[in-house]
Amino acid sequence: PQDSEKAKTFVHAFLKRSMPKMKDEAIQDVLTRKAVVLEHYHKKQTKQKRRKTKGFTAKQRRELRLFEIEPEQQRYAIFLPLHELWKQYIRDLCHGLKPDAQPHMIQSKLLKADLHGAIVTVTKSKCPSYVGITGIILQEFKHIFKIITKEDKLKVVPKLNNVFSLELDGFISYIYGSKFLLRASERSAKKFKLKGTIDL
């Protein structure tokens, strides 16, 4: 047991620590009314920012040759199974490509579909040397298609100023490359507007 003076000293010191912003007179005033609200100050904790794992830069990717296809792998026959997989993927996407299917519905789905594995032909171009190139799309970038031809030649064809056609189960679709300047991942979320005529 402690005497009253020690108790008062302890209580006063405790309240002083608990309410550091209040003066002694104010604390005494609070005690007389027997209503004490203790303050508790939280130390501000600095939030540690999560470091985002940075991927390779474009320069590093070029130096590591991540997207380059080795010459011994540049053979048309190797990628025919990929084309068969792509055909099945499009049939599933378009619910079978039935004869009574509406062309504009199929076209809208093809615009957003992944084209890796599709066989395409350059039908129109401002550069005549591109016209007639046919092959399987191996890689699609924002501005180009990389196509492997039946002659086992890897062709880099720009999208700009070129019209591509692809055929599947009798349905022929045309891709206007100038309106297709998107990465495959971006294209799936884009809303394409129907236009009457499109020029090169």
TrEMBL record:
SMART domains: POP4. Keywords: Nucleus, Phosphoprotein, tRNA processing. InterPro entries: RNase_P/MRP_Rpp29-subunit, RNase_P/MRP_Rpp29_sf, Rof/RNase_P-like, Rpp29/RNP1. Coiled coil: none annotated. One of its GO terms (biological process) is tRNA 5'-leader removal. The keyword Lipid metabolism does not apply. GO terms for molecular function: ribonuclease P RNA binding. Belongs to the eukaryotic/archaeal RNase P protein component 1 family. Component of nuclear RNase P and RNase MRP ribonucleoproteins. RNase P consists of a catalytic RNA moiety and 10 different protein chains; POP1, POP4, POP5, POP7, RPP14, RPP21, RPP25, RPP30, RPP38 and RPP40. Within the RNase P complex, POP1, POP7 and RPP25 form the 'finger' subcomplex, POP5, RPP14, RPP40 and homodimeric RPP30 form the 'palm' subcomplex, and RPP21, POP4 and RPP38 form the 'wrist' subcomplex. All subunits of the RNase P complex interact with the catalytic RNA. Several subunits of RNase P are also part of the RNase MRP complex. This is Ribonuclease P protein subunit p29. The gene is Pop4.
